Amino acid sequence: MTAPVVLDRRSVLAGGGALIVSFSLRHAVAQEKAAQGPKLPGSLATSPNLDSWIRIDADGQITAFTGKAELGQGFKTAFQQIAAEQLDIPFDALKVITADTKLTANEGYTSGSHSMQDSGTAILHAAAQARALLVAEAAKRFDLPPDGLRTENAAVIAPDGRRLSYGELVAANMLHVQAQPTSGLKDPASFKVMGQPVPRVDIPAKVTGGAAYVQDMRLPGMVHARVVRPPSYGAQLIECDTAAIEKMPGVIGIVRDGNFVAVVAEKEFLAVKAMHALAAAAKWRESAKLPNQHDLAGMLTALPSQDFAIFERGNPAVSGATSLEATYTRPYQSHGSIGPSCAVAHFVDGAMTVWTHTQGVYPDRQAIAEMLGMPQSSVRLIHVEGSGCYGHNGADDAAADAALIARALPGRPIRVQWMREQEHGWEPYGPAMVTKLSASLDGNGKIADWNFAVWSNTHSMRPGGAGSLLAAQHMARSFAVPAPRPLPLPEGGGDRNAIPIYNFPNAHVTHHFIPAMPLRISAMRALGAYHNVFSIESFMDELADLAEADPVEFRLKHLDDQRGRAVVEKAAQEFGWKPGERAPQNRGYGFAFARYKNLAAYCAIASEVEVDRETGRARLVRAVAAVDAGQVVNPDGITNQIEGAIVQSTSWTLYESVTFDEVGITSIDWQTYPILRFDAVPDSISVHIINRPGQPFLGSGETGQGPAAASLANAIAHATSKRLRNLPLSRKRIKDAIDA
Amino acid sequence: MTMVKVNGRDHQVDADPDTPLLYVLRDDLALNAAKFGCGLGQCGACTVIVDGKAVLSCVTPLLLVEGKQVTTLEGLGTVAAPAPIQRAFMEEQAAQCGYCIAGMMMRAQALLMRNPKPSDAQIRAELEPHLCRCGTHMRILRAVHRAARLMDTVDAASDRSIR
User: How far is CA A50 from CA A43, A54, A80, in A?
Assistant: First the structure.
């Protein structure tokens, strides 16, 4: 066993038998240590001490820690299952503490379907190793070999019946040790908690009106703020007479810093009223020039790009006979959180605390500290759940708004919530994209040559630096938007899933990275994979058509990956897919498959759609999905994620695009940015999970987005005999295609 | 001062009569369930029951509910003693982020009070004003069906707080 890392402040922080570590110190040591020796599993690689993940107090209280943020995806419950299983304690015998810069490890962002791989894996191994340490300690005290001892219900039990509880066994430094590269994990066949559909721990409060969200926080003395945003990107505040507003009853103050303007009031609705008055008083000079939204493909491909050949495979012996080419586009799309972003900030004695639904408490802390010119050690960010975000929405900006306002009003907890039009108008959108594909078939109807080119912005402008925050961009001493960077492969950004999983003898994939960002953009669920999978899987169907082959058989013909083949076959079988089968009139069947990022979860989806030829309205009637997300921790959690992905992706795919004119965003509410409503909800969705006991967790949050879109597009093509390549596949586009 | 009856209790509220009911519930009465989603009556997250009918509280001024019976999700039951609709949503695990759920549940509750055995089409039509961004719709529909079954088997008196 590695010797414990000794931290000077430890003795001050540790109380009784409790194991508490200072994270700022610990992290520095951790990084140094992590550079040596073999790579540790999951986030143990960056936070290697067991007590970063598992804490056992002398009174028997057990806590698991994660640096990831619960966003409604349910992993808090899954992590609790993992820790309970590996520690051999009942599910209810422990708590999980999520992202908090004072308490948890720095796990960066909660994104990319990484929570299970990073944090779940760290907790799995930390819990197993903690259990081994407890057993070793008990063996010493019992004077017995550890092999004969067993664990049950938070205690180690000797063959003779003697029993020592974990609380009795834990010593101050026991878990303050570095993890080992391998762990004595339990045999999946013996699992009692992992693999079970344990009900989510957060749902009871959410369905009874409990305080479940940052929006529900009510600190003593808390007051309400609203921000007046500029009318368009880059607008300058030239005049704002605030005298009358300051005299409004209940108004506490106005915070003005350059182009940042906010009002604070005793009560929430007074803040809203004052915000409207302030917005009316503010005079702005607008300068934004937005591109033509009706020619996104032309606009994007005309912008300067940095070009990367990201995949090259050649086999001169194979060449194509017949060929096909196609261009697919995706518009800017909105995260569209139902609850506008919100944060609470409190500035006391030079220390700032912000409660936020950010996906990255540490990076957002760095950005907010830089904006305020404060040391990071004086800023604490605590994650509290918000409305679902599906990527980088307004959460980080709202946290910055609250912090900037709180600094102006020390001692007062400040709650800021955005208005609907602010969320829709100012969130960083999922970027517009263009893909151009060409391919040729050999004499046997197999793909001989494949060319794929994607044009895209980056897919992350998340904080880290202050320049990513609206408040920091708008304040007088403003911070410039940082230069965008393409996200590195193998995960990628605009090129996520651009490299085909299929085995083609000749393949060329190019990423045209576009630095210029006419609209504010950042990470949205699945990043470029949504459009790239939509493109690849639509084009596979077009090629299957050309080869006069069944789409499922055509995919299998080019797919060597065994786990990939298994989900394709499972989805087809559960759907009742029959090659060449015609659907009833005005209906169509579609199929699509991808392995998210080519390294995470596998997902195949078969769909049935109904198209009204008179109106062009398409409705998903049923969807059948098969998913392999590695070892399953909570099957209902995976099912919920895939069901949600199918419905959300159906909404993106059929309805959604951000609209704008020459100056500003015009999709600013649910009327101007319509999303799926209940009349378009399918009759059924079924999800079939292929469990892989003992295999790594692959995460399931984003794997469904791309396949759902392509499956739908392919079903619409099947129903109408028309191929639509521009997202969204709107009623008008379908109608126009039918009438053409 | 305006008198409102919320979850069976009288409250004197010191808010302007044009204040939307949503802000009175959240800010003056410290109730969590009704949510601010749009303030425009477009999403349903703020839905509560007023005199038996589902109402969008973000566009309903305090003035219009004076003397009326307002019921929020808190008034139906608790974690320890959930109402049938709450039990049904827990049993179906009918939430992801859950921000829209309280509003959905209140609309469904109002439907089930006047039509204890709605068809699937009736439930879908009733929930049309409500948006869910996580895509939890299939579970929400299952939960409303389950709530109808639970209410059928539970003594009608359990709807204690709905008057």
Answer: 11, 6, 16
Same-domain status, A114 and A252: no
**How far apart are the C-alpha atoms of A8 and B132, rounded to whole Å?**
50
Q: Tell me the C-alpha to C-alpha distance, in Å, between residue A104 and each of A53, A175, A180.
A: 8, 15, 20
pTM of the entire predicted model: 0.94
List all residues of chain B from 116 to 145 with a beta carbon under 8 Å from chain A: 124-125, 127-128, 130-139, 141
Which DSSP category does B160 fall into? T
Residue written as token pair 């879109």: A709
d(CA A627, CA A620) in angstroms, rounded, equals 19
The tens digit of pLDDT for each residue in B43-63 reads 999 999 999 999 999 999 999
* Interchain CB contact of A200 with B (< 8 Å): yes
Domain count, chain A: 2
Spell out the residues 6+ positions from residue A266 whose beta carbon is closer than 8 angstroms to its own: A223, A224, A250, A252
Relative to beta strand A322-330, strand A342-348 is unpaired
Which domain covers residue A350, as residue numbers? 214-287+335-426
Q: Which residues of A fall within a CB distance of 8 Å from B72?
A: 209
With CA atoms as reference, report the closest residue to A3 among A178, A171, A135. A178
Q: Are residues A704 and A688 in contact, defined by beta-carbon separation less than 8 angstroms?
A: no
CA distance A119 to A282: 46
Nearest Cα to Cα of residue A503 among A446, A551, A454, A452: A446
Closest CA to A605 of A468, A712, A518, A500: A712
The three-state secondary structure class of A228 is strand
Same-domain status, A114 and A54 = yes
| pLDDT tens figures, A215-243 | 999 999 999 999 999 999 999 999 999 99
Give the residue from A391, A386, A387 showing the smallest Cα distance to A431.
Answer: A391
Pairing of strands A602-611, A618-628: antiparallel
Three-class SS state of A684: strand
Note whether residue A439 is domain-resident: no
Nearest to A388 among B31, B125, B133 (CB): B133
- Preferred mutation among B133, B139, B146, B161 to probe A, highest tally of A CBs within 10 A: B133
Phi, psi dihedral angles at A228 (to 5 degrees): -100, 115
pLDDT averaged per 10 residues, chain B (length 163)? 95 96 98 98 98 98 96 98 98 98 98 97 98 98 98 62 42
Q: Is A669 on the interface with B (CB under 8 A)?
A: yes
**Cα separation of A382 and A355, whole Å?**
5
CA A438 to chain centre: 31
- Chain B within 8 Å of A387 (Cβ-Cβ)? yes
H-assigned helices in A152-219: 166-169, 203-206
Residues B141, B124: contact at Cβ < 8 Å?
Answer: yes
Query: Do A110 and A238 fall within a single domain?
Result: no
The strand ranges marked E within A258-357 are: 260-265, 282-285, 306-313, 322-330, 342-348, 351-356
Q: DSSP for B46-92?
A: TEEEETTEEEEGGGSBGGGGTTSEEE-GGGT--SSS--HHHHHHHHT
Task: List beta partners, residue A605.
Answer: A592, A625
What is the rounded distance in angstroms from the CA atom of residue A312 to the CA atom of residue A267? Answer: 61
Strands A150-152 and A155-157: antiparallel
Shared-domain flag, residues A14 and A144: yes
Verify that A140 and A253 share a domain, yes or no. Answer: no
Q: Which CATH number goes with the domain that contains A244?
A: 3.30.365.10
Beta bridge partners of A307: A512
* Locus of tokens 């830089």: A370
DSSP B122: H
- Is the predicted pLDDT of residue A33 greater than 90, yes or no? no
